[in-house]
Specification:
This protein has four helices and four strands; from the N terminus they run H-H-H-E-H-E-E-E. The chain is of the alpha+beta class and 138 residues long. It folds into two domains: 44 residues; 72 residues, no CATH class. Strands 1-2-3-4 form a four-stranded antiparallel β-sheet.
């Protein structure tokens, strides 16, 4: 007969050991979560700094504007997620000048705007490009 069925492993004497092991595992998991959360902020700040530096100082803004206007003329309309599980199937067909920014999302509006979102979440930032004949509707 199995020792577990006989009850030899879970006696009152060693039930503290089982509780200690379970609590230790819970403690390790909580510590890992705390470390991940604590490190996420500084890591996000560093990557944000590099992304912003790339956008402001290492981007040819004229060619980026031309690429955005080509999207408008080619009638790409809609939202193109470029990261994660919702990645749009046509995301790789976007111009290389836009993809060089490593955006999270590109949205092409039917009123003559292209929104390139480099950072999402609560602190959205990126680029908005307008067509040559853009008219504000509001």
């Amino acid at each position: 007969m199995s020792p577990f069925v006989e009850g030899r492993f879970f006696t009152a004497k060693n039930s503290r050991t089982v509780k200690t092991v379970v609590m230790s595992c819970v403690g390790v998991v909580l510590c890992c979560i705390i470390i991940m959360v604590a490190c996420a902020g500084p890591c996000r700040i560093l990557t944000t700094k590099f992304d912003l530096d790339r956008l402001l100082h290492h981007t040819d803004h004229e060619s980026l504007l031309v690429a955005c206007r080509l999207l408008m003329k080619a009638e790409f309309v809609g939202r193109y997620d470029l990261t994660g599980s919702n990645k749009h199937p046509d995301a790789d067909k976007l111009p290389k000048d836009i993809l060089a920014l490593k955006p999270r999302r590109v949205t092409v509006f039917d009123d003559g705007r292209v929104l390139i979102e480099v950072l999402g979440g609560q602190s959205h930032w990126g680029v908005v490009a307008y067509s040559e004949d853009f008219k504000e509707t509001y």
